[in-house]
Amino acid sequence: MTAILAPESLLMTKDSMNPLLKTLQAYPFERLRTLLAGITPPAKELIDFSIGEPRHPAPAIVSEAIIEHLHGLAEYPKVIGDLRLRQAIADWATRRFALPADFLDPERHVIPANGSREALFSIAQAVLPPCQTPKPLVLLPNPFYQIYEGAALLAGAEPYYLNCAASGQPDFAALNESVWARTALLYVNSPHNPTGATLSLETLGWLIAKARQHGFLLAADECYSELYPEGQAPAGILEAAAATGSLAQVLAFHSLSKRSSIPGARSGFVAGDADILKAFVRYRTYLGAATPPFIQAAAIAAWQDEQHVKHTRTDYARKFAAAHDILGAVLPVETPAGGFYLWPQVGDGEAFVRALYEAEHVRCLPGAYLARDAHGIHPGQDRVRIALVGSLEDCVEGLQRIRHFLDSHPISTL
């Protein structure tokens, strides 16, 4: 039999792949590896403050639920998820955000997600109009979680960077109406990565009104919502939507990765507008984004328990207190309203990270890798992100090394 060969013009090459892939920028940690390549640090154990990966022990109730439900390996999971999980999520959100008892319907307003990351990315692919001229705008805070930018670019949209003001959040009210008119999707992040700043209930309500006025989707990334100084729980988009009596144009994205210190489980949820979620489920059915049954069982246990979350908040509070005690005299550090990051000004962020790594074998992330030069400003250039995700002992060791480094390398000399 004679083989049928494809014309040379049809053979797949890197130049014939999706051209939008070329618009993606290197991920922050790839850039960090390049920055530190060739440096030989001292023979001390690495303290890694660069990545926001919680390293607290997983709650026992989660581990036990996974083991108990491993028989679920024999089942194909459903994209829509187990109703018991959706009910547990709806119950948690109703308690957490003081929602009316019948406001969040688990059968219409909630779907599980494989962590917030995949859902934040794929929602853009599902809702943005293709081949539109001019390109629709996707608004995102600057600095930002790079998934927002990548989602916009691969959907053929144009990212529009909203520089964070001194408050740590964008000044949304200063935005021109012509920009709002072109907007198809707005990502907000509260508490914000990396500044830790939150959005007030009033601001969230104002943004909901804008979304409905101009017909865009308001996607609220709230994956850090449960990490806050005790007694200072930040407002959420569902709470703001409840004040209007409607979930129209609103989606909230949550995750157990930070709340319950189980990033490896890849478990979260999306809640909000029923019509958008119905279309999103159709998209995800083709994508195959279904959560394994044993992970869903673990998630039910996690959403139903608050005790482990309180312990987690206490642990982070101790680490922020240690940061103030150790660094306060040499580096201005602030306890954020949410999250687990320090975001100090250090002059040249890249130079600081290289010199610190070379001197102390401590790895941080340059703020420049989390932001873009926009509207004549680069809001991350003079900062670094320090993720206090390890044990208290490891964090104290790393902070003491930073203090030792700063005692001999004042910021002004870097």
UniProtKB/TrEMBL annotation:
<dbReference type="InterPro" id="IPR019878">
    <property type="entry name" value="DapC_beta/gammaproteobac"/>
</dbReference>
<keyword id="KW-0808">Transferase</keyword>
<dbReference type="GO" id="GO:0030170">
    <property type="term" value="F:pyridoxal phosphate binding"/>
</dbReference>
<dbReference type="InterPro" id="IPR015424">
    <property type="entry name" value="PyrdxlP-dep_Trfase"/>
</dbReference>
<dbReference type="GO" id="GO:0009016">
    <property type="term" value="F:succinyldiaminopimelate transaminase activity"/>
</dbReference>
<protein>
    <submittedName>
        <fullName>N-succinyl-L,L-diaminopimelate aminotransferase</fullName>
        <ecNumber>2.6.1.17</ecNumber>
    </submittedName>
</protein>
<feature type="domain" description="Aminotransferase class I/classII large">
    <location>
        <begin position="45"/>
        <end position="402"/>
    </location>
</feature>
<dbReference type="InterPro" id="IPR004839">
    <property type="entry name" value="Aminotransferase_I/II_large"/>
</dbReference>
<dbReference type="InterPro" id="IPR015422">
    <property type="entry name" value="PyrdxlP-dep_Trfase_small"/>
</dbReference>
<dbReference type="InterPro" id="IPR015421">
    <property type="entry name" value="PyrdxlP-dep_Trfase_major"/>
</dbReference>
<dbReference type="Pfam" id="PF00155">
    <property type="entry name" value="Aminotran_1_2"/>
</dbReference>
<keyword id="KW-0032">Aminotransferase</keyword>
<dbReference type="InterPro" id="IPR050881">
    <property type="entry name" value="LL-DAP_aminotransferase"/>
</dbReference>
<dbReference type="GO" id="GO:0009089">
    <property type="term" value="P:lysine biosynthetic process via diaminopimelate"/>
</dbReference>
